Amino acid sequence: MESVFIRTSNLSRVYSSGGAELAALWQVSITVAKGAFVGICGTSGSGKSTLINLLGGLDTPTGGEIHVDGTCVTGLDRNSLARYRLATVGMIFQSFNLVPSNSALENVMLPMVFAEIPKAERARRAAGLLDQVGLAARASHRPKELSGGEQQRVAIARALANAPKLLLADEPTGNLDSQTSRQIMRILAELNREKGLTVVMISHDRDLLEQHAERIVTIQDGRIASDSTAGGAR
């Protein structure tokens, strides 16, 4: 029997604006098995990014609970939540979010600074991660000297810096051409398959998710509209 790694119970996020309330996410209950690759699909404004941000500890729900790897994330204080983000979760974004003045190596090392890993070990681990994503020769290059696909690979290496158990990807191929998108998806699929990382990925491109995810959850108007097996199921 597969062990449950993520469990949300009646998860909601309501925003207030000008006296009105908007439910970006409403009473979403979902489970994700350890080592699964789950795709989250939906139109803009459907609530999928809100769900990812809540799972990553970047936002706080207004209702319900989140459990990840046996920990009630919604019950954590600020310091514990920061440790959760640092040690358990790796996040990849559509816009890469690299530090422009830092080299690829320095960008990958950055999360390890906050984890208080010694400098020599940071450099060794970062170099290994860049090699893993095929960028060993680009370690000294700054983001503006890299292509979009290369920047996203640096972002993936950075997300892996502190050996997370959960990889959250918010439209990681959204700014990339189709060929580069397939390359990024292959890397994510390999991390899931060979390293056992649990991956939850958002995409507008359902066909892309169908090829690699084992399950696709569709969100519409802040609620789960469908939950089905995908073509990448093992």
Content-based structural category: alpha/beta
Distance between the termini: 15 Å
State which percent range the strand residues make up. Answer: 25-35%
Principal-axes geometry comes out as globular
Rg, Å, rounded: 17 Å
Mean pLDDT: 93
Arrangement of strands in the largest sheet:
6-7-8-3-9-10
Q: Can you tell me the residue ranges where pLDDT is under 50 for at least 5 consecutive residues?
A: none
CATH topology: Rossmann fold
Query: How many helical elements?
Result: 7
CATH architecture: 3-Layer(aba) Sandwich
Annotated CATH homologous superfamily: P-loop containing nucleotide triphosphate hydrolases
What does this entry look like structurally?
This protein has 234 residues and is α/β, with parallel strands linked by helices. It has one domain: P-loop containing nucleotide triphosphate hydrolases (Rossmann fold, 3-Layer(aba) Sandwich), CATH 3.40.50.300. 34% of the residues lie in helices and 30% in strands. It has seven helices and ten strands. The strands form two sheets. Strands 6-7-8-3-9-10 form a six-stranded mixed β-sheet, with helices on both faces. A four-stranded antiparallel β-sheet has the order 2-1-4-5, with helices on one face. A hairpin with a 2-residue loop joins β1 and β2 (20-33). The two termini are 15 Å apart.
